[in-house]
Amino acid sequence: MTSRTGAARAAENTTPEHTRSAGGRVLRRALAAVGAAVAALVLWAVAVPVAGIEVTAYRAGTLGPIGPVSIGASALAMGLAGWALLAVLERLMKRPGPVWTSVATAVMLLSLAGPLISTADSASMFVLLAMHLVVGVAVILVLAPTARRR
């Protein structure tokens, strides 16, 4: 029987938990960003190909369709931006969770102005408002519980 020091036993007992929790946090944050994009794309698929709604908005002064690539990329970018902000706040604050949740909620609510002012018809506005809410709520609900305290 080999003898282990107290430090070796402590390292055995704490390292796997620390790794699992950090790895789980990273996985959950990645899933938040990807899940938000998938949710927006599912909503687009129901609205456009299934329901036959043409989702259009003004971009650079020209009315044009909003396709799945721009929807997926935008939603993924917002999820990653939320993750990045949370990571920065975790380095700067003792309790970043409430601050991040407040900022993320404010950003989501402000983002609703885009569909309100840039769409040409009410169907497009409804679909885009729903997408903004789905992405925002998904990111907030999944990322907020992952906030670490210092």
From TrEMBL:
Domain of life, source organism: Bacteria
Region (Disordered): 1-22
Membrane-spanning residues: 30-53, 65-87, 99-117, 123-144
Cross-referenced InterPro entries: DUF6069 (IPR045713)
Keywords recorded for this protein, A-Z: Membrane, Transmembrane, Transmembrane helix
Keyword presence, Iron-sulfur: no
Pfam family, one: DUF6069
The keyword Lipoprotein belongs to this UniProt entry's keyword annotation: no
Protein name (record): DUF6069 family protein
Organism from which the protein derives: Streptomonospora wellingtoniae
Lineage: Bacteria, Bacillati, Actinomycetota, Actinomycetes, Streptosporangiales
